[in-house]
């Protein structure tokens, strides 16, 4: 196979990046663009041998990187951010072509956020500290020691941004990394390896291996030299990873599925509430945090629905490279079939499609709103990961909260209300890792991020990221026992 492909004029190396070198595999897999289904090229298909080589490279590079002073690690992370900013246009067009998300979003929001991820954790590292405290005259000093090689497994819906949410804090913490991107959107991870090398990141500190699911994943997650595993994806895959990691008691950070509610109370600004609801179609509904369950208080349900339908039907669906497009394609034919199956079964069970409810040409699914759904219905309880919302009504606050909490997930929730006291009451009762009030998807890296229930294990962001990627050490020093003072 050719070692490089060209995507929208941008050369991308399709081999692994291991120990500071490009490494081919005997086998390959074909990467397709969801925009038109066309083949983008053949990607190196790794397995146990590549997994072993990548972990070995990370293990060998770890002592020197862990010993690198904080200031130097921060400098290199800032240099990576500089490299990202110089290549925003290239990264944006490659990622849009590879996963189908809007080019305008990649240019203006996503890729600048990738650079910010590196800058944030570089700066946070430099002020990471804990005030010493006394115990009966003894001094306690807390330190964050680098943990070792980390395996980071990332999803296809926001490939580079979600990868760097993990890569940046792991590198800042002094760990080395083996990054395994999703096989449906592997290309920008390869470009990140190039950028990191150009920024001066030592060989073996960041390794990128491509491959299909368990073919390479099991070898990575069961490896005894791996000290941390961070995964974003589905609950079934997370359970498999947890089983694989259990033999070595490898600590896990898991950000999993969601079936998040949007609670709209009668006292809410309805225009704002409708805007928040329509926003859930972002990225063709392929957002783990999306509030796919619209729960609307009965007195405003009819008017809310009318305004929602008017606004949602005005969305433009089409080529994500077009500046006027609002919704692009879904990532893969298999995902499209999954979405369509959920909707067909829901309709067969009595649900009504107010809008949408059908596939379009290619890998596009019409934005869909389903009503007349029971709380225990599959479409209400299971994550669809497509442009499909359900709408239910409730008579009052208690029932609204009950419905909101009545799934096995707890990733996020959104509340629309004009009553500050109600917002405080309701948010205190919601089971969710993140609650947005009269807003959506405002993400500050200083805040903890993660899910409750089956939406995940652990929290990342700010100091929480360093708590995960480091071994915390407390050193207790006695006030006496010194032979002499050294000045």
Q: What would you note in describing this structure?
A:
The protein is built from 15 helices and 22 strands. The protein is α/β, with parallel strands linked by helices and 487 residues long. The chain has a 7-stranded mixed sheet with strand order 16-17-18-15-14-19-20, with helices on both faces. The longest helix has 24 residues. The protein is globular. The termini are far apart. The relative contact order is 0.13.
Total E-strand runs = 22
Tell me about the largest β-sheet. Answer: 7 strands, mixed
Structural class: alpha/beta
The whole-angstrom Rg is 24 Å
Report the uncertain regions: none
Shape: globular
Mean pLDDT: 96
The helix fraction, in percent, is 25-40%
Strand content: 15-25%
- What is the end-to-end distance? 65 Å
Task: State the strand order across the main sheet.
Answer: 16-17-18-15-14-19-20
Number of helices: 15
List keywords for this structure.
6-stranded mixed beta sheet; alpha/beta; 7-stranded mixed beta sheet; 22 strands; 487 residues; globular
Spell out the blueprint of helices and strands.
Blueprint: E1 4-7, E2 10-13, E3 16-18, E4 21-23, E5 27-32, E6 39-45, H1 48-67, H2 70-86, H3 88-99, H4 103-126, E7 133-135, E8 138-146, E9 149-153, H5 159-173, E10 176-180, H6 187-198, E11 206-208, H7 213-221, E12 228-232, H8 235-246, E13 252-255, E14 261-264, H9 270-278, E15 293-297, H10 298-312, H11 333-348, E16 352-355, E17 368-371, H12 378-381, E18 388-394, H13 397-405, E19 412-416, H14 420-429, E20 434-437, E21 456-457, H15 462-469, E22 470-477
Parallel strand pairs: 9-10, 9-12, 10-11, 12-13, 14-15, 14-19, 15-18, 17-18, 19-20
Antiparallel strand pairs: 1-2, 3-4, 5-6, 7-8, 8-22, 13-21, 16-17
């Amino acid at each position: 196979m050719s070692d490089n492909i060209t995507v929208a004029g941008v050369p991308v190396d399709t081999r692994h990046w291991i120990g500071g070198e490009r490494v081919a595999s005997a086998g390959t897999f074909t990467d397709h663009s969801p925009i038109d289904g066309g083949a983008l090229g053949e990607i190196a298909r790794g397995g146990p041998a590549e997994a072993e080589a990548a972990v070995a490279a990370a293990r060998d590079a770890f002592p020197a990187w862990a010993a690198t002073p904080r200031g130097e690690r921060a400098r290199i992370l800032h240099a990576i951010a500089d490299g990202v900013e110089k290549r925003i246009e290239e990264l944006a067009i490659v990622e849009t072509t590879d996963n189908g998300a809007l080019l305008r979003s990649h240019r203006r929001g996503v890729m600048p956020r990738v650079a910010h991820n590196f800058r944030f954790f570089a700066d946070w590292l430099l002020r990471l500290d804990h005030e010493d405290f006394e115990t009966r005259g003894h001094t306690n000093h807390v330190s964050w020691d680098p943990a070792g090689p980390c395996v980071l497994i990332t999803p296809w819906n926001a490939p580079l941004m979600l990868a760097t949410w993990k890569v940046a804090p792991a590198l800042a913490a002094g760990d080395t990394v083996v990054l395994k991107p999703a096989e449906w959107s592997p290309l920008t991870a390869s470009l990140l390896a190039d950028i990191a090398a150009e920024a001066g990141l030592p060989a073996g500190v960041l390794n990128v291996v491509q491959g299909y699911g368990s073919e390479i994943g099991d070898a990575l997650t069961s490896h005894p030299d791996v000290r941390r595993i961070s995964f974003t994806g589905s609950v079934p895959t997370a359970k498999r990873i947890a089983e694989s990691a259990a033999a070595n008691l490898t600590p896990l950070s898991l950000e999993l599925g969601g079936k998040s509610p949007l609670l709209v109370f009668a006292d809410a600004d309805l225009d704002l509430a409708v805007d928040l609801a329509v926003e859930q179609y972002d990225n063709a509904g392929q957002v783990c945090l999306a509030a796919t369950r619209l729960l609307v208080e009965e007195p405003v349900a009819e008017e809310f629905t009318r305004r929602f339908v008017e606004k949602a039907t005005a969305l433009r669906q089409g080529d994500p490279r077009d500046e006027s497009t609002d919704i692009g394609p879904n990532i893969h034919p298999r995902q499209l079939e999954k979405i369509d199956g959920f909707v067909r079964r829901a309709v067969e069970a009595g649900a009504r499609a107010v809008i949408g409810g059908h596939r379009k040409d290619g890998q596009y699914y019409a934005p869909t709103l389903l009503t007349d759904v029971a709380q225990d219905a599959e479409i209400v309880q299971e994550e669809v990961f497509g442009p499909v919302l359900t709408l239910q009504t409730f008579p009052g606050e208690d029932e609204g909260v009950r419905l909101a909490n009545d799934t096995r997930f707890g990733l996020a929730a959104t509340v629309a209300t004009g009553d500050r006291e109600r917002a405080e009451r309701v948010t205190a009762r919601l089971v969710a890792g993140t609650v947005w009030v009269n807003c959506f998807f405002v993400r500050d890296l200083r805040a903890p991020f993660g899910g409750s229930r089956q939406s995940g294990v652990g929290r990342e962001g700010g100091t929480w990221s360093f708590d995960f990627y480091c071994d915390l050490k407390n050193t207790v020093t006695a006030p006496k026992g010194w032979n002499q003072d050294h000045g």
